[in-house]
């Protein structure tokens, strides 16, 4: 179980975060003007912001406003964060409780936005695909191109060529369009823990060890429109948090949730640095960035001078350069602040409505149901066997629920009715204190006196408290 393993502090170099403090000297909206210029057929950018909300919004601006026949490469590195797909369920895909308690608490700030005072973030991106963990050892690449020339392996193969250029010869694109790193048969199997077999259905089962001969170092997501295609992906170069990743992407609520939408495919992961000599690590990230730029230039015939300027761009001099048909350079937080549409995108990604209410309908149930007949783990030895918790969530709101503890069917139905009066149409992410919810329902039942046994003889306060703690342990508060 996750609780049995103490979480190590996340590694995050503050020097990476300090890159955000540079102030560009260029006029406001230079980035917007250059990137949307009809002649700008080829564009290469590297962001020095470590803010995932900024980088994803800059990326979206390029996708929407660059010329429809342009090809764009955008590279960035985010601070530690969990990023889920547009149509994913955060209660199913992440351990929200661990994310908040171990790495900072997201609080509701002005305008309903979230304020994070820790070292990791929770982000929902605009593209589809699965959940990933970003940090300073993880390079994010994005290629935007005309839809007619797009296919899912094209730019993953570009990244593989770049990785092979630095010596990672055993990288390849697999049938799922992921980039994997093979291991020699004579090498020790990867020490990574991999879930296998029926225990995948039970987040509380002990993980099974099995040898791994290839590890995933890059996953991809896509966004397609009538004229444009966006492919962005991660690339684990030298993550210092490698063994933490699975903890953040393993939800304790998984055995109880039946969800629509996209579920992540879990795979063992590894660093590119593990396949290379120790001496190259200090410069590996920038070397790979340069090689990806070079492969992009070769693929799309980018001017040599433009490539040279892109590769030599530096955080100390965050400038943009342009030629007849190209734009290259550094993007900063100021570029985001200077463009109203990028700012609007950042605010949207920060909003609690986007983060939580975007997910498709799902149910949470402690017991098998007709629509979700899977067997469930025992919920808690502190609770009576008759305890049941069920709710249906649509657009983030609880539209149906049944929470009861009584073994008597009539009393249980009444208990559920009392709880539902409090939960009906309430956003699930706003329930920070399940003990208060259950206590209010118990008080309401006591006032009505319709069922004297409700939340009483079979459910003393300590049992309601245990149920509240159990719900909070699964749902992230």
UniProtKB/TrEMBL annotation:
Pfam families: LplA-B_cat (PF21948). PROSITE patterns: BPL_LPL_CATALYTIC. One of its GO terms (molecular function) is lipoyltransferase activity. GO terms for cellular component: mitochondrion. Residues 184-209 are annotated as: Disordered. Residues 67-304 form the BPL/LPL catalytic domain. It comes from the Eukaryota. One of its GO terms (biological process) is protein lipoylation. Pathway: Protein modification; protein lipoylation via exogenous pathway; protein N(6)-(lipoyl)lysine from lipoate: step 2/2. Catalyzes both the ATP-dependent activation of exogenously supplied lipoate to lipoyl-AMP and the transfer of the activated lipoyl onto the lipoyl domains of lipoate-dependent enzymes. Belongs to the LplA family. This is Putative lipoate-protein ligase A. It comes from Trichophyton violaceum. The lineage of its organism: Eukaryota, Fungi, Dikarya, Ascomycota, Pezizomycotina.
